[in-house]
Automatic annotation (TrEMBL):
The keyword DNA-binding applies. PANTHER family: GNAT FAMILY N-ACETYLTRANSFERASE, LD18367P. Keywords: DNA-binding, Transferase. Pfam families: Acetyltransf_1, MarR_2. This is DNA-binding MarR family transcriptional regulator. Residues 149-306 form the N-acetyltransferase domain. One of its GO terms (molecular function) is DNA-binding transcription factor activity. Residues 1-139 form the HTH marR-type domain. CDD domains: NAT_SF.
Protein backbone atom coordinates (compact mmCIF):
# COMPACT_ATOMS: atom_id res chain seq x y z
CA UNK A 1 0.00 0.00 0.00
CA UNK A 2 1.37 3.42 -0.95
CA UNK A 3 1.53 6.29 1.55
CA UNK A 4 -1.35 8.00 -0.24
CA UNK A 5 -3.48 4.85 -0.07
CA UNK A 6 -2.63 4.45 3.61
CA UNK A 7 -3.56 8.09 4.32
CA UNK A 8 -6.90 7.67 2.55
CA UNK A 9 -7.65 4.47 4.47
CA UNK A 10 -6.82 6.21 7.76
CA UNK A 11 -9.22 9.09 7.15
CA UNK A 12 -11.99 6.78 5.93
CA UNK A 13 -11.58 4.62 9.03
CA UNK A 14 -11.98 7.74 11.17
CA UNK A 15 -15.14 8.67 9.25
CA UNK A 16 -16.67 5.24 9.83
CA UNK A 17 -15.97 5.26 13.56
CA UNK A 18 -17.06 8.89 13.96
CA UNK A 19 -20.39 8.55 12.14
CA UNK A 20 -21.20 5.31 13.98
CA UNK A 21 -20.41 6.57 17.48
CA UNK A 22 -22.38 9.82 17.01
CA UNK A 23 -25.38 8.01 15.54
CA UNK A 24 -25.15 9.89 12.25
CA UNK A 25 -26.15 6.78 10.27
CA UNK A 26 -29.61 6.73 11.84
CA UNK A 27 -32.53 7.91 9.72
CA UNK A 28 -33.36 10.61 12.27
CA UNK A 29 -30.94 12.60 14.41
CA UNK A 30 -31.09 12.20 18.19
CA UNK A 31 -34.62 10.75 18.16
CA UNK A 32 -35.93 13.86 16.42
CA UNK A 33 -38.10 14.01 13.27
CA UNK A 34 -35.12 15.43 11.35
CA UNK A 35 -32.39 13.95 9.21
CA UNK A 36 -28.83 15.13 9.76
CA UNK A 37 -28.98 17.60 6.85
CA UNK A 38 -32.35 18.96 8.04
CA UNK A 39 -30.96 19.43 11.54
CA UNK A 40 -28.00 21.37 10.11
CA UNK A 41 -30.35 23.64 8.16
CA UNK A 42 -32.37 24.22 11.34
CA UNK A 43 -29.15 25.08 13.19
CA UNK A 44 -28.13 27.64 10.56
CA UNK A 45 -31.59 29.23 10.61
CA UNK A 46 -31.41 29.54 14.40
CA UNK A 47 -27.98 31.18 14.33
CA UNK A 48 -28.43 33.66 11.47
CA UNK A 49 -30.48 36.82 11.22
CA UNK A 50 -32.83 36.89 8.22
CA UNK A 51 -30.74 34.62 6.00
CA UNK A 52 -31.67 33.80 2.41
CA UNK A 53 -31.92 30.27 1.06
CA UNK A 54 -28.82 30.92 -1.04
CA UNK A 55 -26.87 31.92 2.09
CA UNK A 56 -27.86 28.69 3.86
CA UNK A 57 -27.01 26.66 0.78
CA UNK A 58 -23.55 28.18 0.49
CA UNK A 59 -22.83 27.67 4.18
CA UNK A 60 -23.76 23.98 4.07
CA UNK A 61 -22.77 23.19 0.46
CA UNK A 62 -26.26 21.79 -0.12
CA UNK A 63 -27.89 21.10 -3.45
CA UNK A 64 -30.47 23.80 -4.27
CA UNK A 65 -33.29 21.31 -4.85
CA UNK A 66 -32.53 19.45 -1.60
CA UNK A 67 -32.49 22.69 0.36
CA UNK A 68 -35.73 23.86 -1.28
CA UNK A 69 -37.51 20.65 -0.22
CA UNK A 70 -36.26 21.03 3.35
CA UNK A 71 -37.40 24.66 3.61
CA UNK A 72 -40.83 23.81 2.19
CA UNK A 73 -41.19 21.06 4.77
CA UNK A 74 -40.28 23.48 7.58
CA UNK A 75 -42.84 26.01 6.32
CA UNK A 76 -45.54 23.37 6.04
CA UNK A 77 -44.84 22.34 9.64
CA UNK A 78 -45.11 25.94 10.83
CA UNK A 79 -41.44 26.14 11.76
CA UNK A 80 -40.39 28.75 9.20
CA UNK A 81 -41.65 31.96 7.63
CA UNK A 82 -40.31 34.04 4.76
CA UNK A 83 -40.76 37.65 3.69
CA UNK A 84 -39.53 39.84 0.89
CA UNK A 85 -36.20 41.61 1.21
CA UNK A 86 -36.76 45.39 0.93
CA UNK A 87 -33.25 45.80 -0.49
CA UNK A 88 -33.56 43.01 -3.06
CA UNK A 89 -37.00 42.39 -4.44
CA UNK A 90 -36.27 38.86 -5.63
CA UNK A 91 -34.77 37.67 -2.34
CA UNK A 92 -36.78 36.04 0.45
CA UNK A 93 -35.63 36.46 4.05
CA UNK A 94 -36.09 33.40 6.27
CA UNK A 95 -36.86 33.29 9.99
CA UNK A 96 -37.89 30.60 12.44
CA UNK A 97 -41.32 30.94 13.99
CA UNK A 98 -41.72 30.68 17.78
CA UNK A 99 -42.59 27.02 17.23
CA UNK A 100 -39.49 26.66 15.06
CA UNK A 101 -37.34 28.16 17.82
CA UNK A 102 -38.82 25.78 20.38
CA UNK A 103 -38.24 22.84 18.05
CA UNK A 104 -34.62 23.82 17.53
CA UNK A 105 -34.05 24.23 21.28
CA UNK A 106 -35.48 20.75 21.92
CA UNK A 107 -33.22 19.25 19.24
CA UNK A 108 -30.23 21.16 20.61
CA UNK A 109 -30.90 19.87 24.12
CA UNK A 110 -31.21 16.26 22.89
CA UNK A 111 -27.98 16.57 20.87
CA UNK A 112 -26.12 17.94 23.89
CA UNK A 113 -27.34 15.01 26.01
CA UNK A 114 -26.22 12.49 23.36
CA UNK A 115 -22.82 14.14 23.00
CA UNK A 116 -22.41 14.46 26.76
CA UNK A 117 -23.19 10.76 27.22
CA UNK A 118 -20.59 9.87 24.60
CA UNK A 119 -17.94 11.95 26.38
CA UNK A 120 -18.92 10.54 29.76
CA UNK A 121 -18.44 7.00 28.44
CA UNK A 122 -14.74 7.66 27.91
CA UNK A 123 -12.11 7.60 30.68
CA UNK A 124 -10.78 11.09 31.37
CA UNK A 125 -7.41 10.65 29.56
CA UNK A 126 -9.16 9.41 26.39
CA UNK A 127 -11.80 12.11 26.66
CA UNK A 128 -9.14 14.81 26.83
CA UNK A 129 -7.29 13.31 23.85
CA UNK A 130 -10.54 13.23 21.88
CA UNK A 131 -11.32 16.88 22.65
CA UNK A 132 -7.79 17.97 21.77
CA UNK A 133 -8.00 16.10 18.47
CA UNK A 134 -11.44 17.58 17.75
CA UNK A 135 -10.15 21.12 18.27
CA UNK A 136 -7.20 20.40 15.99
CA UNK A 137 -9.46 19.01 13.25
CA UNK A 138 -11.63 22.14 13.34
CA UNK A 139 -8.56 24.39 13.09
CA UNK A 140 -7.12 22.40 10.18
CA UNK A 141 -10.31 22.38 8.13
CA UNK A 142 -11.15 26.02 8.78
CA UNK A 143 -7.64 27.39 8.17
CA UNK A 144 -7.72 29.65 5.13
CA UNK A 145 -4.05 30.62 4.78
CA UNK A 146 -1.30 28.25 3.66
CA UNK A 147 0.89 26.85 6.45
CA UNK A 148 3.55 29.37 7.45
CA UNK A 149 6.86 28.68 9.20
CA UNK A 150 7.86 31.26 11.81
CA UNK A 151 10.51 31.45 14.51
CA UNK A 152 10.22 32.17 18.21
CA UNK A 153 12.45 32.17 21.27
CA UNK A 154 12.66 29.26 23.70
CA UNK A 155 9.79 28.65 26.10
CA UNK A 156 9.59 26.39 29.16
CA UNK A 157 9.31 22.78 28.04
CA UNK A 158 11.04 23.32 24.67
CA UNK A 159 14.37 21.80 25.74
CA UNK A 160 12.72 18.59 26.86
CA UNK A 161 10.69 18.41 23.67
CA UNK A 162 13.80 18.90 21.53
CA UNK A 163 15.68 16.16 23.37
CA UNK A 164 12.78 13.73 22.97
CA UNK A 165 12.04 14.53 19.32
CA UNK A 166 15.65 14.43 18.17
CA UNK A 167 16.37 11.20 20.05
CA UNK A 168 13.29 9.55 18.51
CA UNK A 169 13.85 10.85 14.98
CA UNK A 170 17.56 10.03 14.80
CA UNK A 171 16.91 6.54 16.20
CA UNK A 172 14.18 5.90 13.62
CA UNK A 173 15.92 7.48 10.64
CA UNK A 174 19.59 6.70 11.28
CA UNK A 175 19.70 4.02 13.95
CA UNK A 176 21.28 6.20 16.65
CA UNK A 177 21.43 4.59 20.08
CA UNK A 178 20.42 6.12 23.41
CA UNK A 179 23.90 7.62 23.62
CA UNK A 180 22.68 10.40 21.32
CA UNK A 181 19.82 11.26 23.65
CA UNK A 182 22.25 11.47 26.57
CA UNK A 183 24.56 13.71 24.54
CA UNK A 184 21.92 16.24 23.50
CA UNK A 185 20.50 16.26 27.02
CA UNK A 186 23.92 17.26 28.36
CA UNK A 187 24.41 19.86 25.60
CA UNK A 188 21.09 21.52 26.33
CA UNK A 189 21.55 21.35 30.09
CA UNK A 190 24.88 23.14 29.68
CA UNK A 191 23.26 25.66 27.31
CA UNK A 192 20.59 26.48 29.87
CA UNK A 193 22.90 26.64 32.88
CA UNK A 194 25.58 28.76 31.20
CA UNK A 195 23.48 30.86 28.82
CA UNK A 196 25.07 34.20 27.88
CA UNK A 197 22.84 36.44 25.71
CA UNK A 198 25.95 38.14 24.34
CA UNK A 199 27.24 34.87 22.87
CA UNK A 200 24.38 32.33 22.79
CA UNK A 201 20.93 32.13 21.22
CA UNK A 202 18.27 29.62 20.16
CA UNK A 203 15.20 29.48 17.95
CA UNK A 204 12.13 27.28 17.64
CA UNK A 205 10.53 26.97 14.21
CA UNK A 206 6.77 26.54 14.45
CA UNK A 207 3.83 26.14 12.11
CA UNK A 208 0.20 26.41 13.25
CA UNK A 209 1.45 26.42 16.87
CA UNK A 210 3.25 23.10 16.31
CA UNK A 211 7.01 22.75 16.80
CA UNK A 212 8.62 22.33 13.38
CA UNK A 213 12.30 22.31 14.36
CA UNK A 214 15.05 24.10 16.25
CA UNK A 215 18.62 25.39 16.15
CA UNK A 216 21.15 26.66 18.71
CA UNK A 217 24.01 29.13 18.56
CA UNK A 218 26.64 28.59 21.28
CA UNK A 219 30.13 29.88 21.99
CA UNK A 220 32.98 27.74 20.66
CA UNK A 221 36.18 26.58 22.33
CA UNK A 222 38.23 29.37 20.71
CA UNK A 223 37.72 33.15 20.81
CA UNK A 224 35.67 34.45 17.92
CA UNK A 225 34.34 31.00 16.98
CA UNK A 226 30.69 30.07 17.46
CA UNK A 227 28.99 26.72 17.01
CA UNK A 228 25.76 25.91 15.19
CA UNK A 229 24.22 23.01 17.10
CA UNK A 230 21.28 20.63 17.12
CA UNK A 231 19.57 21.71 13.91
CA UNK A 232 16.57 19.51 13.17
CA UNK A 233 13.27 19.76 11.28
CA UNK A 234 10.21 17.57 11.87
CA UNK A 235 9.63 15.12 8.98
CA UNK A 236 6.22 16.49 7.99
CA UNK A 237 7.58 20.06 8.00
CA UNK A 238 10.46 19.37 5.64
CA UNK A 239 10.40 21.09 2.27
CA UNK A 240 8.65 24.17 3.66
CA UNK A 241 11.78 26.25 4.21
CA UNK A 242 12.12 25.68 7.96
CA UNK A 243 15.70 24.43 7.73
CA UNK A 244 16.90 27.34 5.60
CA UNK A 245 15.16 29.85 7.86
CA UNK A 246 16.76 28.35 10.97
CA UNK A 247 20.27 28.24 9.50
CA UNK A 248 20.08 31.71 7.96
CA UNK A 249 18.82 33.18 11.23
CA UNK A 250 21.59 31.48 13.21
CA UNK A 251 24.26 32.73 10.78
CA UNK A 252 22.92 36.29 10.87
CA UNK A 253 22.83 36.28 14.66
CA UNK A 254 26.39 34.92 14.90
CA UNK A 255 27.57 37.71 12.61
CA UNK A 256 25.67 40.32 14.68
CA UNK A 257 27.28 39.03 17.89
CA UNK A 258 30.72 39.52 16.38
CA UNK A 259 31.73 35.95 15.70
CA UNK A 260 34.32 35.61 12.94
CA UNK A 261 33.68 31.96 12.24
CA UNK A 262 30.82 29.50 12.69
CA UNK A 263 31.42 25.75 12.93
CA UNK A 264 29.19 22.70 13.14
CA UNK A 265 29.41 18.94 13.46
CA UNK A 266 27.38 16.63 11.26
CA UNK A 267 27.13 13.03 10.13
CA UNK A 268 27.78 12.09 6.49
CA UNK A 269 24.42 10.26 6.52
CA UNK A 270 22.53 13.55 6.97
CA UNK A 271 22.36 14.35 3.27
CA UNK A 272 19.62 16.99 3.41
CA UNK A 273 21.36 18.85 6.23
CA UNK A 274 24.69 18.74 4.40
CA UNK A 275 23.09 20.21 1.25
CA UNK A 276 21.53 22.94 3.37
CA UNK A 277 24.87 23.80 4.98
CA UNK A 278 26.55 23.95 1.57
CA UNK A 279 23.86 26.29 0.21
CA UNK A 280 24.37 28.54 3.22
CA UNK A 281 28.09 28.87 2.49
CA UNK A 282 29.52 26.28 4.89
CA UNK A 283 32.37 24.07 3.68
CA UNK A 284 33.56 20.74 5.02
CA UNK A 285 36.94 21.18 6.74
CA UNK A 286 37.37 17.83 8.46
CA UNK A 287 36.12 14.26 8.03
CA UNK A 288 36.90 10.94 9.70
CA UNK A 289 35.25 7.66 10.59
CA UNK A 290 34.31 7.37 14.26
CA UNK A 291 32.23 5.09 16.44
CA UNK A 292 29.34 7.14 17.80
CA UNK A 293 25.80 6.32 18.92
CA UNK A 294 26.22 2.56 18.51
CA UNK A 295 27.59 2.60 14.96
CA UNK A 296 30.39 3.70 12.66
CA UNK A 297 29.60 7.11 11.19
CA UNK A 298 31.25 9.67 8.95
CA UNK A 299 32.04 12.42 11.45
CA UNK A 300 32.40 15.82 9.73
CA UNK A 301 33.22 19.38 10.75
CA UNK A 302 31.88 22.19 8.56
CA UNK A 303 32.79 25.87 8.87
CA UNK A 304 31.73 29.28 7.59
CA UNK A 305 33.91 32.41 7.80
CA UNK A 306 31.72 35.36 8.73
Amino acid sequence: MTQRENDIATLRAFNRVYTLRLGLLQAKLDKSPFTLSEARVLYELAHRTDPTAAEIGRALLLDRAQLSRTLKRFMAAGLLTSRGDPAHGRHRLLALTPEGRATFQALEAATCVTTGNLLASLPLPRRNRLLTAAKEIVVLFQAEAAPHIALRALQPGDLGMIIARQAILYACEYGYSGDYEALIASILANFHQNFDPARDDAWIAHCDDTMAGSIFLVRGDRPGVGKLRLLYVEPDMRGMGAGSLLVDTCVSRARALGYGRLELWTDSQLLSARRLYARSGFAQVEARQEHYFGQEIGSEIWALDL
